[in-house]
């Protein structure tokens, strides 16, 4: 069966800090617009709890967030910022075996 490989735990070591930095950028952009987490979530079409977890860089305990592109683009529109303003500058190397 062709599908997505099991996540490599080493990736979480580099993805975790990146996800947390993305969450900080979301929080800063929201604060700059004077919006609550609930307002952002509602306007972006995601649950308030999901957005709360995004700002913390987590999806489940001990698991970094990995939001869908659709959610990120909706958040950019709500927060009125380009995607590159939300994404941290140094993307980790996520290639298999890297």
TrEMBL record:
Domain HTH cro/C1-type: from-to ranges: 26-86
Protein name: Helix-turn-helix transcriptional regulator
Lineage, broadest ranks: Bacteria, Bacillati, Actinomycetota, Actinomycetes, Propionibacteriales
Molecular function via GO: DNA binding
TM annotation in the entry: none
């Amino acid at each position: 069966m062709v599908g997505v490989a099991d996540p490599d735990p080493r990736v979480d070591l580099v993805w975790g800090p990146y996800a947390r930095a993305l969450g900080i950028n979301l929080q800063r952009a929201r604060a700059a617009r004077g919006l609550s987490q609930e307002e952002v979530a509602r306007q972006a079409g995601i649950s308030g709890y999901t957005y709360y977890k995004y700002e913390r860089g987590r999806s489940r305990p001990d698991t970094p967030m990995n939001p869908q592109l659709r959610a990120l683009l909706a958040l950019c529109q709500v927060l009125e910022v380009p995607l590159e303003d939300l994404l941290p500058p140094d993307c980790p190397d996520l290639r298999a075996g890297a």
